[in-house]
Amino acid sequence: MAQGRLAGKRAFLTAAGQGIGRATALAFLREGAEVVATDLNPDLLVKLAEDGPGIITHTLDARDTDAVHAAAKEAGDVNILFNCAGFVHHGTILDVDEAAWDFSYDLNVKSLWRTLTAFLPGMLERGGGSIVNMSSAAQTIKAPPNRALYASTKAAVAGLTKTVAIDYITQGIRCNCICPGTVQSPSLEERIHAMPDSYEENRANFVARQPMGRIAEPEEIAMLAVYLASDESAFVTGGEHVIDGGWSL
Ligand code: NAD
Hints:
alpha/beta; Rossmann fold; 2 domains; seven-stranded parallel β-sheet; 45% helix; binds nicotinamide-adenine-dinucleotide
């Protein structure tokens, strides 16, 4: 039987309960990795374990430093870290209060400090690892309206990705980020429902900003994550990998 592209590797994911994280956990499993999938929502993890038999699930708040470090100890020798947790705040800078600022930076950026300090030492000890961070095209690549806080956090993710890549480049660690355009997911549906105008009009506006005339499926982003996690991308590090259906062209 052919070996999967991630055979012999162990992956740890945050926010794997739905959307891109879930699709990536299932894709990692299909490609032969041992998968430790975590999420804040235990119900979503039950469904994930049913759909991906063999996936190890663990309820985890990516904002809880002690819990992240405890989960890393339990997860064992992880070669692949996929940092997917993130929240899309809607609005201009004048719509951001201090609580919203702190929440988004805590979840979208500081959670990477948590997982990196939890997993990097082990990866360094074992001589290697691939870290994949979830950024967005909505940062310095493309400035959509009403994404002031979100784009700022995702630019921070890209900046951190590059510094991690350079700091550990001679020690077998690769660190890349993924920068999607609009991707079909439960939280996208919530954003569409929350906007003024009808559901159909709002959805059409999201589709219209993608030159390909469609929104991405989470599985398409997952396949990029598989490539970055695998040894196929052994010469690739520090990259901002845009996968946006031409949005930023
Ligand atoms: P989503 O937003 O629908 O799901 C997010 C998941 O995160 C849920 O399973 C939720 O339970 C979990 N979660 C929430 N708070 C958490 C916490 N504190 N700790 C752990 N898990 C938590 O999924 P999505 O839309 O695919 O987004 C996933 C990532 O991709 C995010 O970082 C998002 O910013 C990024 N992204 C999404 C899009 C898009 O259009 N959907 C585009 C670019 C980037």
